[in-house]
Write a structure and sequence with these properties.
The chain folds into 2 domains: 218 residues, 3-Layer(aba) Sandwich (Rossmann fold); 67 residues, Alpha-Beta Plaits (2-Layer Sandwich). It is 34% helix and 28% strand. The protein contains 10 helices and 14 strands. Helix 3 runs parallel beside helix 5. The radius of gyration is 25 Å and the shape is elongated.
Length: 308
């Protein structure tokens, strides 16, 4: 399957010398949801802005459905909808007028039936005659999505779509995104919320300092980079790790009451079984034990810390 977006060796260096994107390579498949994670200044917004034609790349290429974003700007731009972080809406315009005007900007023929359906899908139809200034923050965010979808794009970019939105509205947004994906829209979103990426994305990309550190499915990330930690609480403190356990990746807590064994998730559970047998044979008295697995957030924090 040909990717709907293909990015090769993309770089962006601003006039100040700041290198915002560093040799980014990425292919995005049709109909998938991909979440880009990263701290402020990681390059997420610059990457989105470049694909959308808002920022000019210093070098490298970007193709959207086979068309170059520079030489075929009009063709690529009409396939893309963008929901920015900022609530950039005319305060005194009605919801209906705002969305219909946005459709016209892309040269699309007037289609009131489509706009009506779009507003109903986004639970905005009962607000169609309301001025934007009278809407809540969550409703304004929905209007931005309606504007981005007004010309029926194949690709939707969402830059921090749930920033400043309460938990209930955030879950509503997740449903909207799933519904759009089910209709064949390719969705790329940036987010600071790890649970958002876990909940809705097919693949997760991690960016830091302008670099794309990885892009993989959530299960693959957990398998390749996840860690499993076995914490053994002892009834009595010990001053050192028994010699029979030295071959394992085991740490002794400062108070001598815990043995902490770290293993890679992909290694399976054979070592853990062996560790437990060795502990029993060593004569140490076990009070309790627990197994903890690293979360996507743990992996993200470790990746960003290493690359900083």
């Amino acid at each position: 399957m040909n990717p709907i977006i293909s990015i090769k060796d993309l770089n962006k260096i601003y006039a100040t010398g700041f290198n915002a994107l560093k040799n980014v390579n990425l292919e995005i498949n049709r109909g998938e949801i991909i979440a880009l994670l990263g701290p402020n200044g990681a390059g997420k917004t610059t990457l989105i802005s470049t694909i959308c034609g808002i920022v000019s790349p210093t070098s490298g290429t970007v193709h959207v459905d086979g068309f170059d974003i520079i030489s075929d700007f009009r063709k690529t731009r009409e396939m893309i909808g963008l929901v920015p972080q900022e609530l950039t809406l005319g305060a005194f315009e009605t919801v209906w007028g705002t969305v219909r005007f946005s459709r016209g900007l892309f040269g699309s023929k007037r289609d009131d039936d489509y706009i009506e359906k779009l507003l109903k899908d986004l639970s905005l139809f009962d607000k169609k005659d309301s001025e934007v200034r009278a809407l809540s923050g969550g409703m304004k965010r929905r209007v931005l999505i309606a504007k981005a979808l007004s010309h029926q794009p194949k690709i939707l970019f969402l830059d921090e779509p749930t920033a400043g939105v309460d938990v209930e509205l955030r879950k509503d947004m997740w449903k909207i995104i799933h519904d759009l994906s089910s209709k064949g829209v390719t969705i790329i979103l940036t987010t600071h919320y790890i649970e958002e990426a876990e909940e809705i994305a097919n693949r997760v990309g991690v960016m830091n300092n302008g670099e794309l550190l990885l892009v993989e499915g959530k299960d693959q990330i957990m398998e390749n980079l996840g860690k499993k930690q076995l914490v053994i609480e002892l009834k009595e403190s010990t001053k050192k790790i028994p010699s029979s356990l030295e071959k394992y990746n085991i740490e002794l807590s400062q108070n001598g009451l815990q043995l902490i064994y770290n293993s890679e998730i992909k290694d399976g559970e054979t070592d853990i079984s062996n560790v437990l047998i060795e502990i029993t044979n060593s004569g140490l008295l076990v009070k309790d034990l627990k197994i903890e697995k690293s979360s996507l957030e743990d992996i993200f924090v470790d990746l960003v810390r290493v690359e900083s």
